[in-house]
Amino acid sequence: MASLIQKILKQARTTFSNNTEVFNENLFKLYNLMDVVTSSDLNLDISFAFQDSETQYDAPISYITIYEDNILSMSIFVLKSNKVVPLHNHPEMYGVIKVLAGKVIVDSYSLNTPKTFEAEIQLAITQEIERVKDTVQTDGPATADVSTSTSTLNQDVEEASNMVDVSLQISSPTVDASTSTTSTPNVDFAQIPNQNVIPLRRVISAEFDGRNIVDINSKPCILKPHESNIHEIRSVDGPAAFLDILAPPYNTEIPYVGPRICSYYANLGSVLKDVFLLQEINSPSFYWTDIKPYMGPDPTVEVE
Ligand SMILES: [Fe+2]
């Protein structure tokens, strides 16, 4: 008789290898299987994460590979107490996450929403104004055409501001975990690093979906190519572990784009209510993993 992890792998392969009209139905079947998986199904023992011998050589997070092919990856993350998988993306990927032990706080963000489009229009207009102002200051009196442009752009900004009710001040985001509400918007667009100034480092806008406290009794979390695609996961009240299925896996090829690389982000602040600017950064130095062996049932199934 197939083990639960075999059933999960088989369903995951079915789900993510057939992008058809039955995709959502298959994803829901996978979701239901993930909903009932426990640490004992995977013979997972995280007692090592409770050991209190923190040195600079102790990884804050352990990574356990269960399975990977060109369709999906299946792994377990074990976090020591109050450790963070920093804010990161999953380029054009799906993900299903189920907490197996402990409790985590998940902050997630969506991409390409109506609100992020509003923010990007506002940002583009404001940066254009700054560019024009710089040109005016640099080039001196040849200002007749430029000032006309500035005037037109200012009108555009005013219209956009009326449309989206933007406040142009800056601060860090704050979240009340109990209510999942965010601070009011407050970024000075002119302070945002221009992508031309920091080559290869993107600034993107993302809409905050909320903060969820997730434990073994919670439903699985699902991320999609745009929906809830960026997240940060933090263990609270002790160590925690979660099962993570990603499809396609990192480092596979995105057609016409390139390798599917994981990017990390710093949150620069909000630009509209619930919309934040995220600055791509190097992987934070506090985040690194060691590798632990998978001790559970063999998930491999015959795939027809
Ligand atoms: Fe992730």
UniProtKB/TrEMBL annotation:
Species the sequence originates in: Psylliodes chrysocephalus
Protein name in UniProt: 2-aminoethanethiol dioxygenase
Keywords noted in UniProt: Iron, Metal-binding, Oxidoreductase
Record's GO cellular component terms: mitochondrion
InterPro entries in UniProt: PCO/ADO (IPR012864), RmlC-like_jellyroll (IPR014710), RmlC_Cupin_sf (IPR011051)
Highest taxon of source: Eukaryota
Family matches, as CDD domains: cupin_ADO
One example GO MF annotation: metal ion binding
Pfam families: PCO_ADO
PANTHER family associated with the record: 2-AMINOETHANETHIOL DIOXYGENASE
